[in-house]
Amino acid sequence: MDEAAESIARALSERFGESLSVDPSLPGLEDLARLAARRVCRRYAPREVPADILRLLCACALSAPSKSDLQQADILIVRDKDRRGRIAGLMPQMPWLDEAPVFLLFLANGRRTPFVAALRGKPFPNDHLDLFFNATVDAGIVLATFVRAAEAVGLGCCPISVIRDHIAAVSEFVGLPEKVIPIAGMALGWPAEEGALSPRLPLSVTVHEERFDDSGLAAKVDAYDRRRVATRPYRKQRDVARFGEMDFYGWSEDKARQYAVPQRADFGAFVRKQGFHLD
Hints:
The chain has helices at 3-16, 29-36, 51-61, 81-89, 96-99, 112-119, 129-152, 167-173, 203-206, 217-231, 240-243, 251-258, 267-273; strands at 73-78, 102-109, 156-160, 180-189. By secondary structure, the chain is of the alpha+beta class. The chain has three domains: 3-36, no CATH class; 51-195, NADH Oxidase; 203-258, no CATH class. The N and C termini lie far apart (54 Å).
């Protein structure tokens, strides 16, 4: 088998716990190999990311598909060490935010479309949930495309959703106006080590054909828990004081504990404060 095809099959077997057939004659196998073997990066070398490379990556990311060509995603680059430090200080459990030479914010921009309507003297009867939804989906697509572009040139990335725990403060730090919100941050830099490959739920859970089917989900999740514990066990258990210590601690227990406490209950209020209407 072709080396790239072997690499893809090996990475996907490790990630999903099943064997996939990879045709070595397929074009683009090198790109697929990078996607299949993607690893999160949380340790960065003390080396700057040149501005021209960063701008190139932003251009490639913003070449991604956009709903109806509305182009409602922006990228905000934070290089200033003091500003990065203020953001990282909100999340001390993630020291890599301060270590990475660049921090990015991926923004849902619902501001431009109504501005363009007003600019051209047209009504804008679409200031409702769809405006928010379109902008956040656009921003998510741009984030994913940026990761692919950055890793293609050898950079490491770590998307950060935890900024939404501190969304008002982060937005104030970078001066976000009405109808612009951060959907995620990202630490970016040159990797200091090879990151870990994250096991994923089996494709029988997340890929559906013709009709949605989640039958047998409990058994499939249990099998995934056991595969994950065998290959990449959790280093510590969440909230032991509340839930106790378990002999077997898998992904489902970890996620159940994580979401057993309120998460971002003020997020909707912030989104509305920023001028989005969610009806």
